[in-house]
Amino acid sequence: MPEQEEYKPLRRLRKKTTIENLWLYLLAELQKGDQHPYALIKIIQDKYGFNPGKVLPYVVLKKLERDKFVKSYSKSNRHYYKITDKGRNLLMKGLCYLENLTNSLEN
Fold first, then answer.
1. How far apart are CA 1 and CA 19, in angstroms?
2. d(CA 88, CA 94)
3. So where are the chain's domains?
4. Considering all CA atoms of the chain, what is the largest pairwise distance in Å, rounded to the nearest integer?
5. Phi, psi at 51, each rounded to 5°
6. Is 103 helix (H, G, I), strand (E, B) or coil?
7. How far apart are CA 98 and CA 2, in angstroms?
8. pLDDT tens, 17-35?
9. Structure pTM?
10. 3-state secondary structure of 83
């Protein structure tokens, strides 16, 4: 089997841990500082190696804002998002869950 060929279960895992949990990446980057959605899309592509699409990040950010995990504001004709304390708490819980899962799978 060629090296670049990927097993179907691994492709499914990548999808589930990237695009289907985009909120985790958005909050992680917002923890480092306020950003506008287009910048977040570029950061995710460059740093994490997957394309979140052009629309989905906006949809996820709106849902995060609705649930008070992020707040938005306008500056210089751009819409920016910042993480809230509730969002930081969610991010930490998400990261702890992934760490515990990894530890359980390894042991």
1. 27
2. 10
3. 8-106
4. 52
5. -95, 115
6. helix
7. 30
8. 999 999 999 999 999 999 9
9. 0.90
10. strand
